[in-house]
Amino acid sequence: MPNEQQVYQPPAGTYDQPFYYIFDGSRLTDGVNAANQSLSLDPGIGDFLLRRAVGWSLVTNQATDGAYQLKDYSKNPLSGAPVLLNPNGAPFDDGLYPREQFYPATGKIPFDLMNVLRAHGTGPLATAQVAFQGIRRQAGSLPLLRPAYRYKTKPYSYTKSVIINSVAGPNQTAAQLFQPISDYDFELLELRILYQNAARLFLSVTEIALMLLVAVTPGAAGNSISITIGTGLTEPPNQAFSISVQGMAIKVIPATDGTGTITTTLFQTVAALQADPAVTALVTITLESVFDFPILSTFGIPQFLTGGQNGAGLPTIVTTMLVYDPVRFTMSNIPMNDIFLNRVGPYQNGAIVPAMLFPVSTSLHIDFFSQVSDSTKLPLLAILEFVGRNRIPC
């Protein structure tokens, strides 16, 4: 009879943690071959066992003879010839290594690249990456490991969101997400990431000026935000200026003179809106105009923001990410492309193997760095689902 399936265990006296070594291809030269490339392993964090290599199409020309050749730690090729990428990316852009490839702690991951093209030639160079996914193996026992106890597992997910508001580029401040672990120890199995655009409205507020309103919280709910200026086709005389907010409806009543002519100016209106906390909780307001005129009425008709939806018009790689383990050690050597780890991304293969154990009172922590070059697509809401299972004592 076949042996009963055994739960994966590292060799005695060692422990494994999932890890991604990320090759930064931003300094490569497009249109040439790049032989004898390598990625040095970080010192002091153990040997590396490679199980998956993905992202070759982000550093080679997948449409015209782009290829790669991965090697073992002694620089012996792992394929008889360079592996060509087909125009559709899969399956040769996402290589699995079921037998694992061993790279010693003081070694390098060597490979050759043919016909370099960084980040499809259009994305930020920071996204020209190859990810080597596997485990780092160290002597000792897992940090924060609790005393042994009997438990049963139950599927569970944490959901958390963070706003991305930076344009792609160096020296940006990370958007940080923290999700505390409560009640039970939690095994993280995979990440699912959804990005949502913010609703916005360009409103004509004088004959030559536009006011931009952008929902503070991205997503479809922003499409319910409206702004109304004025009370109707005409305004009553000697009307006082006021701003009110009811739910998601902003209403501006402009001041008028004795003839019912609007006297409140554009600059006065924008300043008052920006100073009202109920308004700024809903929208950000910007204006590009050096001329100040009486503001135009919308004749009492609400003007709604539009465009709040799931990731419309975004690049394939929206962010790079630093994911932290329970002792705040990063799961990669540099921030990695979100598509390498996102279960609902184009590769659909972001499983965290082995599962990462987060004991109670630790936190799931991710730093996001925007790779969105078009400022009109910001802000974005990143919604994270941490899929895993709770360990319930029994």
Describe the protein in words.
- With 394 residues, the chain is mainly β.
- It has three domains: 1-141, Jelly Rolls (Sandwich); 144-198 and 308-394, Jelly Rolls (Sandwich); 203-304, no CATH class.
- It is built from two helices and 23 strands.
- It has helices at residues 266-275, 277-280, and strands spanning 14-24, 34-40, 47-54, 67-70, 83-84, 94-103, 108-114, 129-139, 151-164, 175-180, 185-197, 200-206, 209-215, 226-229, 242-246, 249-253, 283-287, 303-304, 319-324, 336-337, 356-358, 363-370, 380-393.
- Strands 1-8-3-6 form a four-stranded antiparallel beta sheet, with no helix packed on it. It has a four-stranded antiparallel beta sheet with strand order 2-7-4-5, with no helix packed on it.
- Strand 12 (200-206) and strand 13 form a beta hairpin.
Number of strands: 23
**Rg, Cα atoms, Å:** 27 Å
CATH topology of the largest domain: Jelly Rolls
Strand content: 35-45%
Domain count, please report it.
Answer: 3
| Element string (H = helix, E = strand) | EEEEEEEEEEEEEEEEHHEEEEEEE
* Helix content, binned percent: under 10%
Order of neighbouring strands in the sheet with most strands: 1-8-3-6
- Poorly predicted residue ranges: none
Main sheet overview: 4 strands, antiparallel
| Overall outline | elongated
**SS content category:** mainly beta
Please tell me the CATH architecture of the largest domain by its name: Sandwich
Assembly type of the chains comes to single chain
Instruction: Please tell me the overall pLDDT.
Output: 91
Number of helices: 2
